[in-house]
Amino acid sequence: xxxxxxxxxxxxxxxxxxxxxxxxxxxxxxxxxxxxxxxxxxxxxxxxxxxxxxxxxxxxxxxxxxxxxxxxxxxxxxxxxxxxxxxxxxxxxxxxxxxxxxxxxxxxxxxxxxxxxxxxxxxxxxxxxxxxxxxxxxxxxxxxxxxxxxxxxxxxxxxxxxxxxxxxxxxxxxxxxxxxxxxxxxxxxxxxxxxxxxxxxxxxxxxxxxxxxxxxxxxxxxxxxxxxxxxxxxxxxxxxxxxxxxxxxxxxxxxxxxxxxxxxxxxxxxxxxxxxxxxxxxxxxxxxxxxxxxxxxxxxxxxxxxxxxxxxxxxxxxxxxxxxxxxxxxxxxxxxxxxxxxxxxxxxxxxxxxxxxxxxxxxxxxxxxxxxxxxxxxxxxxxxxxxxxxxxxxxxxxxxxxxxxxxxxxxxxxxxxxxxxxxxxxxxxxxxxxxxxxxxxxxxxxxxxxxxxxxxxxxxxxxxxxxxxxxxxxxxxxxxxxxxxxxxxxxxxxxxxxxxxxxxxxxxxxxxxxxxxxxxxxxxxxxxxxxxxxxxxxxxxxxxxxxxxxxxxxxxxxxxxxxxxxxxxxxxxxxxxxxxxxxxxxxxxxxxxxxxxxxxxxxxxxxxxxxxxxxxxxxxxxxxxxxxxxxxxxxxxxxxxxxxxxxxxxxxxxxxxxxxxxxxxxxxxxxxxxxx
Length: 676
Ligand SMILES: Nc1ncnc2c1ncn2[C@@H]1O[C@H](COP(=O)(O)OP(=O)(O)OP(=O)(O)O)[C@@H](O)[C@H]1O
Hints:
alpha/beta; binds adenosine-5'-triphosphate; Sigma-54 factor interaction domain-containing protein; nucleotide-binding; transcription regulation; DNA-binding
């Protein structure tokens, strides 16, 4: 293999020492990429090396003549030198108005050093050149010298040694640019170096400082991004990795080097960085990841790009969390928001108010949409815990492991993807307040055991933790399932059941308190600013319909009616399911649409809705029952077509189909899909 040679740079200086100093300094910074050789003037006669560039310590060097080994066309740069920041601070500490000696080995070099100090801005002092053999009548008490203390006269009582002068950043930038070596890495070295010296170019210094600042800001911003972010140049060489990227690939930008090599060596299958791509799904480190690649284009030319990587599982978890969203940590409703004219309900409200004055756990039973959560809020708001948090948790919205960590929290590093520093659980967040565990009937046996332990011991153990945290939380649980039946079937722990239902509230479904139907309907319409008279027109239909989704369904229906009939005196548009049960509009008849004629997505959505309604109203959701239900709602579908659609929904992960009478059930993905 032909390894390209490093460019050769000759450093010509007055003395061997100076040449050596400059070579040592430049080698320390760029020796990896450039081959430096120091040549004192007196030995510059014959050189058998072809140099690509010559750096001279002063432009007076070539007054003598140009050595023949410098080929015509070779780039020659004059080295500008400056002081380190430490030396400069010592010079600036000398009192203003001080007259002092500047001591060096020769007249020229002493005067050159004085010129440098003045150029850098040391205007507060007055320097007099001193060198061996200088004729000086006055004796000055202070001397500045660049490493030549031994030449300072004895009568001087304070020496400020400014040490060797160092090469200025401007010279380095010129050198690297000419050699085509100014890139991300060398720029970083320059930026760090610029922080330790006094620059002879104010403009360059400001630009450097600006660059350093901008780079720090960018790095910090990218470190806050929770995806993996990789920046690269036009050749695909990595210029930047954020914190996530370093952790994911376990390497630094220097180690990673090439973006495609990094991806390929981890087994990713993706197009080349020279193309832009969006949402490419592949596998890295045995995990599904989503890759995106975008170019940075300057003056119509691709000058680099940014590649981002998301771990698919993390995206799914976030999506789940968003859907789950604990419903806020304050109780929003009080008893005054519970609307009812039913005597049965009024008695239940009275019982609930009594329960609020105790600190005992409450179990609220009732079909979906009957107002269980509303009661939980109201009980908390009227209890002595009202000024503390009310944390509502939907236990059926999350898979078991996520629900566990949400409820009890986790310690740092408890599992992959766990947030650094751990996370407090909802029990902890509800301390001194109330936790509302909705859909308690759906929790797994292992979570039932953990919950029981929390209730018994009044202490929480975080996932992956060893310490127990004492908590003081009142539990209000609710479910639309028949918990006593689940207990009898061994699916729900009896000891937990008894702990939860110290007090029990049974909320009747809407069909068992029909007087509430028109009353609530009017209330919902008025709240929406709609004409309450509509209820009178619809009363029969409302009373005939069984309201399987209870008050929630009635509320949604009235919202629909208010919206669709805004500004209308008489009702123009009512939902299909009410048309079937309305005397007033029965002349419209119930149209029978063939479900197979609907677009696939619409058909699937309708069937998902039927499954959902069937489940919430405790009806059978088996294939035959769904065919029947479709017919009642005005659609026709054969059993065979229903089977096919159910299979498609199952394959898409939207439903679970259990053999036998249990029928179909929406998965959490299915519920989310339904909610839009
Ligand atoms: N008596 C009532 N007065 C006013 N609004 C009510 C009443 N009962 C229920 N609602 C309203 O109906 C909707 C459903 O109530 P809620 O969420 O409390 O029912 P739920 O029984 O907890 O339902 P799920 O079991 O599905 O969680 C809410 O918008 C609630 O405000």
